[in-house]
Specification:
With about 290 residues, this protein is an alpha+beta fold. It is about 35% helix and about 25% strand. The chain has three domains: about 5-50, Uridine Diphospho-n-acetylenolpyruvylglucosamine Reductase, domain 2; about 55-170, 2-Layer Sandwich (Uridine Diphospho-n-acetylenolpyruvylglucosamine Reductase, domain 3), CATH 3.30.465.10; about 180-294, CO dehydrogenase flavoprotein, C-terminal domain (Enolase-like, domain 1), CATH 3.30.390. The structure holds flavin-adenine dinucleotide.
């Protein structure tokens, strides 16, 4: 049963921030409610005040600038991202990502801000957005601040959001030329949270023969989405070969720290990290190679 609470609806960011400041440590923000309501029904979260931001229009937008990249308002739904023509054109990986998140019903309600602020290490957007070098804009009543999404996730279901702060926006820079991104999650139930997921971004050099830059980010392999810089370094300046892929997959597996639970053992998760890392690098690499031939 859900614990009693006061329901407070904000229509503007200003009003939301005022309510957050007023109710200090006894509130929870609700947007789509797809993650929060589960925790409330389980009695794991019992806020005295529920501050609803779902109808704050200022937080719902998708904008693209050819120099600055993509900005998503925190209350933009998964479904809006999935169906956006701008995103399909400039960031098709986000469409693939969204199509594999939950069901239409959940995607119609759940928001990108809610997903990131929930801080679930198996959440799908985290690894892909970090691979794309995303940052987040956060505000309280006094100030605004921006930070890399990579630094936003602090621990299991814990983010850098402080008391009184609201996530306003997620920003993704323009994807550099000669770059491709690949993402896959391994799950038991289709479109459910992944057991392990891997996002890989590969940028190749001028003639496409070697890797200029790589970003590899794991989901479900630690308490937060995990960027594997040691594995990325192995790729820089190198030509992709089966031997190199084996080395990188092994390194990613070593650097991860998954747990054992009812869904999979730690050993199996490490094995999945190895397999998916190799597969995603190869996929991204082949994608760039094909686009260079066109
Ligand atoms: C059946 C089901 C299947 C799912 N499958 C997947 C899946 O495959 N992959 C996946 O990644 N996710 C999945 N999810 C999780 C869900 O899609 C996301 O977590 C959802 O996007 C949360 O968004 P929301 O707006 O509903 O957040 P809410 O539930 O409203 O909020 C979630 C958390 O974020 C906080 N919050 C929300 N907005 C803000 C803000 N702007 N600023 C600060 N804090 C904020 C809330 O206080 C709360 O702590 C699934 C959920 C369900 C119910």
């Amino acid at each position: 049963m859900i614990h009693d609470f006061n329901y407070l609806k904000a229509d503007t960011v200003k009003e939301a921030l005022r309510l957050l400041a007023q109710h200090k440590d006894d509130y929870k923000i609700i947007c789509g409610g797809q993650s929060l309501l589960i925790l409330m029904r389980q009695g794991l979260v019992t806020p005295g005040n529920l501050i609803d931001i779902k109808k704050v229009k200022e937080l719902s937008y998708i904008k693209f600038d050819p120099k600055k990249g993509l900005t998503l308002g925190a209350a933009t739904t998964h479904r809006e991202i999935e169906k956006s023509k701008i995103i399909r054109k400039h960031y098709p990986i986000l469409v693939d990502l969204e199509e594999n998140i939950a069901s239409n019903q959940t995607r119609n309600w759940g928001t990108i801000g809610g997903n990131l602020c929930h801080g679930d290490p198996t959440g799908d957007p985290g690894p892909v957005f970090i691979a794309l070098d995303a940052s987040v804009k956060i505000a309280n009543r006094q100030r605004e601040r921006t930070m890399l999404l990579e630094e936003f996730f602090l621990d299991f279901f814990e983010t850098a959001l402080e008391e009184g702060e609201l996530l306003l926006e997620v920003r993704i820079p323009v994807i550099p030329p000669k770059t491709a991104v690949a993402y896959e999650k391994f799950n038991i139930i289709k479109n459910d949270q992944g057991i392990i997921s891997v996002a890989a971004l590969i940028t190749v050099n001028k003639d496409g023969s070697t890797c200029k830059n790589a970003r590899i980010v794991l989901g479900g392999a630690a308490n937060t989405p995990l960027r594997i810089k040691e594995a990325e370094k192995l790729l820089t300046g190198q030509k992709i070969s089966p031997a190199l892929l084996d080395k990188v997959g092994k390194k990613a597996s070593e650097m991860s720290s998954p747990v054992s639970d009812i869904h999979a053992s730690e050993t199996y998760r490490r094995y999945l990290v190895d397999v998916l890392t190799k597969r995603m690098i190869k996929k991204a690499w082949e994608h760039v190679a094909t686009s260079l031939k066109q």
